[in-house]
Amino acid sequence: MVKICTSSPEETIAAAEKIGALLRGGDIVAYRGGLGAGKTTFTRGLAVGMGLPDEVHSPTFALVNEYRGENITLYHFDMYRIMNAEALETTGFYDYMSEDSVIVCEWSENISDCLPDNTIIITIEHLGEDRREITLKGDERFDSAWN
Questions:
Q1: For 74, phi and psi rounded to 5 degrees?
Q2: Whole-number Å distance between alpha carbons of 33 and 143
Q3: Which of 145, 125, 118, 90 is nearest to 29 (CA)?
Q4: Measured between alpha carbons, how far is 122 from 84 in angstroms, rounded to an integer?
């Protein structure tokens, strides 16, 4: 488990860039954190770390946004309105899983029973104005991300 505190959106993006650089095709990242926690801001940093443009927008009204690079694609899902496995199936979620894509899910709490065991869990806690505590649970490649 890795834990870091950030004090600005820029610091949050920089921390996420380090994680994004370590992501690889087939990864699924599940965010936990309330409204305004900084999930979309964190995704901007992941995209940059993956070598993608940082023009990331909240997928709230689209359900999923797609960001394509030369070698990898980032699919950014919003699961706020998805409450069970049947609803998840209708989104086509499983069709997005591939060895040349990374899936990031906001409101992953709603589909936690449907996520694979190797899902990377990122919890973002809003501590005040611009302060965030970010906790990452994943495999050993992330252990040195902030050292």
A1: -105, 125
A2: 21
A3: 118
A4: 21
Task: Give the CB-side neighbour count of residue 139, counting CA atoms within 13 A.
Answer: 10
Q: Cα 63 to the chain's mean position, in Å?
A: 14
CA distance 41 to 27: 19
Do β-strands 120-128 and 28-32 pair in parallel, antiparallel, or remain unpaired? parallel
- The confidence band for 47, taking pLDDT boundaries of 50, 70 and 90, is very high
Per the CB < 8 A criterion, the answer to whether 134 and 29 are in contact is no
H helix or E strand, kind and range, residue 105: strand 101-106
Structure tokens at 87: 């609803």
CA nearest to 25, candidates 79, 99, 93:
99
Residue 37 in tokens: 């926690």
Measured CA to CA, the distance from residue 75 to residue 93 in angstroms comes to: 10
Q: How far apart are the C-alpha atoms of 4 and 44, rounded to whole Å?
A: 17
pTM, whole model, 2 decimals? 0.89
State pLDDT tens for residues 111-125: 888 899 899 999 999
